Amino acid sequence: MKPNKLFYIVGHSILCIVMLSCGGNKYIREIPYHYSSDVFSKTTLLKKEETASNYSVVDDNPQGLNDDTLKIKEKYSIIMEVMPKEVRDYKLYSYIDEWLGTPYKKQMLEKQVGVETSYFVQALFSDVYGETFSKTPDGIFRSKALQLFTGRAFLKEGDILFFRYDKFHPISDVGIYLHNDRILACTAKGLNIYNFNDEYFQLRYVAAGRLKDKK
Predict the structure, then answer these.
(1) Looking at residues 150-171, what average pLDDT do you find?
(2) E strands of 48-187, at which residues?
(3) Which of 54, 62, 131, 136 would you label with 48, given CA atoms 20 to 30 Å apart?
């Protein structure tokens, strides 16, 4: 092969390589995106953090309640037809839970055997709230530890309800207000949860009492 022709071929090849290289650089510069694993990871992380910042993390047990207490909370929210967060007095519900269904028996206080409401209220307030009451409805009504009132709109969990069944006993029986017009009371059906709106209770309701704040 002649030297001039060889020089031409080599020179032409070099020129083509240079042109392709320049064209390749231009192509890279004109690509609509530049892919880099590091850049992609950082971009994805930023988007994730931005999205997460628009939402709040919900803790459905902010008080750190144990499983037994959570079961009580759920159970009584269903019974009283309220949201679980509205059931607050866990000690109250845990205490009464073991007594529900106990038959009515005068002057008795034995779980699932027999109970009189005033005896139960006396025991409940002693064990749960550290307050000592008389075992009679009238004695509880006269306690200086209670703030008495009649308005139903002010009732809240743990308030004592007073009922009158006959003219000879102005305060004949007691009950406990729970929530959403549900009360704990004792009838011929035993100690259970009843609807305060029932005529049976409305005709006999006298007043309510709430523990005074201890200074």
Answers:
(1) 92
(2) 109-110, 114-115, 146-149, 160-163, 173-179, 182-187
(3) 62
